[in-house]
Inverse folding.
């Protein structure tokens, strides 16, 4: 017999036909019927309800009923239900509400995953006066508590509880007529619960208003009775908490909702439930003096702080007048015509507070850089103006979809900003200017994902907005341009059309949709490169009608001709993996991205590996290495580019930069700064670069002034901060410091070297962020100091010294711990022509400095002032065994365990141990190298020429992988063989036998 998982406890009293929708919803549960029971606890009904319950129990074995004398309130029936429940969990339901079909199954599965004490399912309500805590239920929370989630905003008991949890802690409802019994029960439960789970992606429970409105509220009550019960709830909170911010946050909810909100004149809208017979001011003030400390008051929104101040000062007339002036304030939200973008319906909207059509609505007073509530709200009520400067950031508009029949509600993705529009009229005598707070934004609806990741239900969904700020809070239906409610349906579908436009730049133009045929008219290497690119596009899994290929001499012209939702820019020679367009487009649509970056690869080409180590659906310049990838081989949303007027001709072509032309860098950098969302697909490779393009190098006299212009443009878009520093650091590394280091500098004659140095120095002095160099390795900070100080000769000496730095790798052991695995151990260190690189002090201190061997003049002193930081710190040194396929050049990094050591006179060394199998390696020859990253350098060396005494002359082989020496004293390589094909062995054996028999029957000598 299956153990009962859930008992649904339903109090009933004279339910009549109103119980039938609940019964129907319980019979449609997807949880097996032997896994849950329904316990109706009838509170002495005087109509036909007992007979109907008896029928249900007789017809459905998992339904049962209990009758008790009338108690007049649901507390006693619920307690009886918990006492008699057989389920591991109990779910409370009111007799005129309803559960969604998968509610019990989903909630119980969540309980099993987390060992939950309480489970809160997403709720919906068609009551005008019963709100829903959207903030709490906007997402799923597997495990939380009242201390780290806004659980206190949901104080109704229509939730699932672990039965033993309620029994062990004696958590019961107050019995008999007891207003606020739900809140007392929930306060006790939350304070004892260790794990609370919130299911936010499925509507589990719906409050349903009866047609006769008989369940819409109660008759008017005595406020002292109401607040007497509330006193017990507040005392429960105080008894279960320690003084401080956590207690203040819980009490603040009751202060806002049950005390301050009920004072003065109610705003237009649903009446407060329950209504009071008398003015509650005195009762509220007594309770506030007892429980509401300064900490509770100080954390209130501005509007509620004003009410609290007037309450504390015992000024009921002023409080009433203050609330009267806001009574008719409502929200108004209008939307521009909708349009499809990235398979989503989007619309720009404007929301503001107003009283009547055409009136100014809510106004603020601006005095200098400070903002206050308008005098029309506070004059004659308060002696001092009410400042809202710090509350400007709280103005927002939350967009919701509400089903017109089921009342289900889902939050809608939106991007908003606050605009302070100046109200007509001259400034006051003191310079006061009245401004209107207006929230503008863009709402985004994906009909196939908007319901918690699932498609919207059939029917019409009304778009609503919740406009709030500084304590003002109103709901409104979003109106379209014709003044009609804006609605969305699941059947709304994006128009068919081109998804991706691929713009390939070449010397001869052409255009084709979905195929590359008959476009190439050039000859030679350029034609071969273009043909490789177009052939890869012709092999795409994205349907031909879904993308177009535009071959053009000018990328801006290609952009103007594009018709796709996204635009991808390619250079000839870049090959696109067969499913890349399909994957990139799907990823961009899934995450509603303005830019989608796919993983590149290229033999002999620099690739920003750090950016593509993982998927980054919401990458930003401030926290992700997007600045390392400024190529245009990405998907750019075409509407986004048009909205911001982005083009490649913003910066003139000045020759090839560190990785891309400066025009390409400018276009991509500006787009990345302006993008609302950039998504990075870090899985399989999308683009395979061909050989590096040949072209004129950057001419300092043209390139660096253009770079300064670009950096200044970026500064106007970003301002100081992490995003600007990452971009500046990228240009500092690749376009400035790399040009003044290594053989690129040393191959220049003295005159050219000086011209380049002066051009770079102008950028450093005039255009570089002062904090951009802080995260560079020590050697780069030294180089930057030499540029700033105007020491080109010392910089040349540093470059010459750096070119001598190399990785020295010694093979220590090759073993076979089992038949499938080879164990490779090596030691690697950095050294110069003069000896190994060392650090000082060698150990014992957190701050360490490079001790360069072979340098003189000012350089040793400069190094002594620049500590090794971040990835260049000796403790962060690492090494990895790298295998490179001899035929294709593909790299395979083998997981390597490393130990860092400091040896007197030998500098820093890394001992690495790698476990190697044939898994993931294609058949062929793979050459072994060590890639060492230490002290700010990454150097690679072939492994095997230097060997320790424990390395055998013939290293052992493992399954499908055999090490060998390229020459008797040469490097280590591995020969990998293909796996043996699976097949029926007996057939192979019989085949061989038959061949031998045929051979035996042949005449001799044939």
């Amino acid at each position: 017999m299956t153990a009962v998982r859930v008992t649904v406890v339903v109090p009933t009293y004279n339910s009549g036909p109103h119980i039938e929708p609940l019964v129907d919803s319980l019979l449609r549960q997807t949880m097996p019927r032997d896994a849950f029971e329904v316990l109706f606890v009838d509170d002495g009904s005087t109509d036909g309800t007992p007979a109907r319950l008896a029928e249900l129990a007789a017809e459905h074995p998992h339904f049962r009923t209990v009758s008790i004398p009338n108690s007049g309130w649901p507390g006693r029936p619920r307690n009886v239900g918990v006492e008699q429940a057989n389920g591991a969990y109990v779910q409370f339901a009111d007799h005129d509400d309803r559960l969604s079909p998968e509610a019990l199954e989903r909630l119980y599965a969540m309980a099993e995953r987390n060992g939950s004490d309480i489970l809160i399912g997403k709720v919906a309500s068609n009551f005008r006066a019963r709100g829903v805590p959207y903030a709490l239920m906007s997402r799923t929370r597997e495990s939380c508590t009242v201390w780290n989630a806004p659980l206190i905003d949901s104080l109704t008991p229509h939730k699932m509880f672990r039965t033993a949890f309620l029994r062990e802690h004696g958590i019961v409802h107050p019995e008999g007529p007891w207003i606020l019994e739900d809140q007392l029960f929930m306060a006790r439960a939350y304070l004892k619960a260790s794990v609370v789970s919130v299911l936010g992606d499925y509507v589990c429970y719906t409050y349903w208003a009866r047609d006769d409105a008989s369940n819409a509220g109660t008759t008017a009550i005595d406020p002292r009775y109401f607040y007497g019960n509330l006193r017990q709830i507040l005392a429960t909170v105080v008894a279960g908490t320690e003084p401080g911010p956590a207690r203040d946050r819980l009490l603040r909810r009751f202060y806002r909702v049950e005390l301050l909100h009920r004072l003065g004149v109610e705003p237009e809208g649903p009446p407060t439930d329950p209504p009071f017979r008398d003015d509650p001011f005195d009762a509220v003030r007594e309770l506030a003096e007892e429980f509401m400390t300064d900490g509770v008051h100080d954390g209130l929104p501005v509007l509620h702080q004003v009410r609290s101040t007037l309450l504390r000062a015992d000024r009921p007339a002023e409080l009433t007048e203050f609330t009267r002036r806001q009574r008719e304030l409502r929200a108004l939200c209008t939307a521009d015509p909708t349009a499809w973008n990235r398979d989503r319906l989007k619309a720009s909207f404007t929301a503001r507070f107003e009283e009547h059509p055409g009136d100014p609505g809510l106004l603020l007073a601006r005095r200098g850089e400070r903002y206050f509530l308008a005098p029309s709200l506070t004059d004659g009520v308060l002696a001092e103006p009410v400042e809202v400067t710090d509350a400007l950031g709280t103005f927002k508009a939350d967009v919701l979809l509400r089903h017109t029949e089921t009342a289900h509600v889902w939050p809608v993705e939106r991007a908003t900003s606050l605009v302070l529009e100046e109200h007509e009229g001259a400034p006051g005598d003191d310079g006061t200017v009245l401004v209107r707070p207006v929230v503008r934004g863009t709402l985004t609806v994906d009909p196939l994902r908007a319901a918690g990741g699932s498609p919207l239900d059939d029917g019409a969904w009304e778009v609503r907005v919740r406009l709030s700020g500084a304590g003002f809070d109103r709901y409104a239906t979003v109106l379209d341009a014709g003044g009609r409610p804006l609605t969305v349906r699941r059947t709304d579908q994006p128009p068919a059309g081109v998804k991706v436009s691929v713009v390939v730049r070449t010397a001869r133009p052409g255009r084709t949709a979905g195929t590359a045929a008959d476009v190439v008219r050039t000859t030679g290497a350029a034609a071969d490169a273009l043909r490789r690119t177009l052939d890869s596009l012709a092999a795409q899994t994205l349907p031909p009608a879904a993308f177009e290929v535009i071959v053009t001499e000018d990328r801006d012209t290609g952009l103007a001709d594009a018709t796709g939702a996204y635009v991808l820019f390619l250079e000839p020679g870049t090959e696109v993996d067969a499913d890349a367009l399909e994957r990139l487009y799907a990823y961009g649509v899934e995450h509603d991205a303005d830019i989608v970056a796919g993983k590149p690869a290229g033999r002999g080409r620099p690739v920003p590996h750090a950016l593509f180590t993982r998927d980054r659906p919401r990458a930003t310049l401030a926290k992700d290495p997007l600045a390392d990838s400024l190529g245009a081989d990405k998907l750019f949303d075409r509407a986004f580019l048009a909205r911001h007027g982005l083009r490649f001709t913003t910066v003139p072509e000045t020759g090839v930069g560190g990785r891309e032309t400066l025009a390409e860098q400018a276009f991509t950098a500006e787009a990345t700064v302006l993008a609302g969302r950039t998504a990075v697909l870090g899985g399989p490779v999308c683009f395979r670069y061909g050989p590096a393009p040949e072209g004129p190098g950057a001419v300092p006299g043209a390139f660096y002034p253009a770079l300064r212009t670009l950096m200044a443009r970026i500064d106007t878009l970003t301002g100081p901060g992490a995003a600007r520093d990452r971009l500046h650091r990228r240009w500092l590394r690749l376009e400035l410091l790399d040009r003044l280091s290594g053989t690129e500098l040393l191959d220049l004659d003295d005159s050219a070297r000086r011209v380049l140095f002066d051009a770079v120095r102008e950028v450093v002095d005039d255009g570089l962020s002062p904090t951009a160099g802080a995260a560079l390795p020590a050697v780069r900070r030294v180089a930057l100091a030499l540029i700033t100080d105007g020491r080109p000769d010392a910089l040349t000496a540093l470059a010459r010294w750096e070119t001598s730095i190399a990785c020295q790798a010694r093979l220590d052991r090759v073993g076979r711990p089992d038949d499938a695995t080879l164990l490779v151990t090596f030691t690697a260190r950095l050294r110069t022509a003069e000896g190994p690189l060392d650090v000082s002090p060698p150990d014992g201190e957190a701050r360490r400095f490079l001790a360069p061997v072979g340098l003189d003049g000012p350089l040793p002193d400069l190094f002594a002032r620049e500590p090794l930081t971040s990835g260049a710190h000796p403790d962060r040194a690492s090494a990895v065994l790298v295998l490179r396929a001899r035929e294709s050049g593909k790299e395979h990094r083998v997981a390597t365990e490393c130990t860092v050591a400091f040896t007197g006179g030998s500098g820093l060394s890394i001992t690495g141990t790698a476990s190697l199998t044939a898994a993931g390696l294609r058949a062929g020859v793979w050459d072994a190298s060590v890639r060492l990253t230490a002290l700010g350098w990454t150097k690679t060396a072939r492994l095997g020429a230097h060997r320790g005494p424990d390395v055998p002359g013939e290293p052992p082989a493992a399954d499908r992988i055999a090490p060998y020496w390229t020459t008797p004293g040469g490097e280590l390589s591995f020969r990998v063989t293909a796996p043996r094909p699976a097949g029926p062995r007996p057939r192979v054996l019989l085949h061989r036998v038959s061949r031998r028999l045929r051979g035996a029957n042949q005449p001799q000598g044939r």
User: Anything to note?
Assistant: The first strand starts at residue 6 and ends at 12. The longest helix spans residues 700-718. The CA atoms of residues 580 and 686 lie 5 Å apart.
